[in-house]
Amino acid sequence: MNGARSLHLRAGLLSVLILALLLIVWQLATRPAAGSAAPAAAMTAEQIEYARLLGKDPGAEAGSTAGRSGFPTPSQLGSKVIEHLSHPFYDNGPNDKGIGLQLAYSLGRVGLGFALAALVAIPLGFLIGMSPLLYRALDPFIQVLKPISPLAWMPLALYTIKDSSISGIFVIFICSVWPMLINTAFGVAGVRREWLNVARTLEVTALRRAFEVILPAAAPTILTGMRISMGIAWLVIVAAEMLVGGTGIGYFVWNEWNNLSLTNVIFAILVIGVVGMLLDLLFARAQKAVTYAD
Known about the structure:
By secondary structure, the protein is mainly α.
C-alpha cells in the first residue's frame, strides 16, 4: 500500500516537473523580441491592414503584445482562461456564447448519441455473443461498416435528416455502435462454460441467466467497449461541429480560428483534452467497479 502511494506521489511530482519545463520552453519561445515588429509609420496601408488581419497591432510598441512568432505566451493564455471561466454561461447571440454553453451543447449531443448506441449495441451484442449462427450472419456487415469514418456519414445524414444538430447525434451514434457491439459480443461469448453449465443444472431461466450470470461476467468487457466508444465519440463531435457549425466546442474552435484568435483556440483545445480525460476516468472507475478477481 505504501509502495503504491509512494509511486503515485513520485509520478505526480514528475508530471509537475514536466509541465513546468514545457511552460518554460513555451515562454522562452514566445517571449517578445525587441525590434521584431516594423513601426506603423514605415508600413504601407496594405501592410497595416494585413498585420491587423493576422491579429497584430502595428501601432503598438514592437514586441509589446505579441511573441516572437505571434504565438500567445503562457501568461496570455492564463488571462484568457480566467476570462472564460469567470463567465462560462453568457449568451450574446449565435456566435458569442460562453465556453460552458458550448460544452453543454457538445456533451448533450454526445450523451444522446452514445445512449442510443448503447440501447442498440448491447442487446444486439448479447444476441451475437450467444448465437454463433447470428454472429456468422452479421459479421460481414459489421466488418464492412466498422472501418467507415463516422464523418463520411455526415453528408448522407444532412441530406436525409436535414438538421445539423440531429445529424451530429447520428454521427455519434454510428461511431459509438461498433466498439460496444464487438466488445459486448466478445464478452458474452467468453463467459466460462462451467458457469453456464451450473446455471442449466439449476434450471435457471434464460432471462435470469442473462442478467445474473452472463451480464456480470461480461460487464468488464462491455465497459471497455463503452469506454472506447466514448473516446471516439468525443473526438468525432468536435470534428462534426466544425463541419456543420452552429453551437458546440468544435464550432467554437473553428469560429475563433476564423477570428484569428490563437489564444482562444489553444484554450478550447485544452478544454477538449480535459473533458475527454474526465470522461475516460469516469468509465475507468465504472470498469474497475465491475471487475472481479478470480
